[in-house]
Design a protein that fits this description.
The protein has a domain of 65 residues: Roll (SH3 type barrels). The protein contains 3 helices and 8 strands; from the N terminus they run αββββββαββα. The radius of gyration is 28 Å and the shape is rod-shaped.
Length: 152
Amino acid sequence: MSRRRSRGRTIRRLSLLGTPAGLLLVGAACYSMHPVVPSALASAHAPDRVWLTRADRSTVVLQSPRLEGDTLLGTVDGAPQRLLLSQAAAIMTRSTATPRTIVLVMAVSGAGFAGLWYLQHRPDVGMAETCYDGSFAQNLVPCCLQQNTGPC
């Protein structure tokens, strides 16, 4: 197998692995979880969704939560639910993490720019002597590819 062919497979493999990992990183960086005081659920500015962790460490995502006495009302998977506050070990809500998102966008942009700069300024690309490939169209190709004089 040629060196060029194996390099192409490696790059494809890394891009296939890197895309889901990058999306997971972006998703994790854009949001953060914060604890919610139960009395905040009774206010007009209550969050749209809360994550309620029970004592057995199971988690329930409660949509449209509201507090009535010591009971938390809302919907779970579209079905109405009533959960006692005494069953909750923690109540969390998700909010945007703007500073982390800005840092992530700047880091990804910088890495992309550095990668493109490297590809543009590699010593083995761009400065190679060119030859005609001998075809009817007279395409220009690096001479090292045509003469097999080593890696291009």
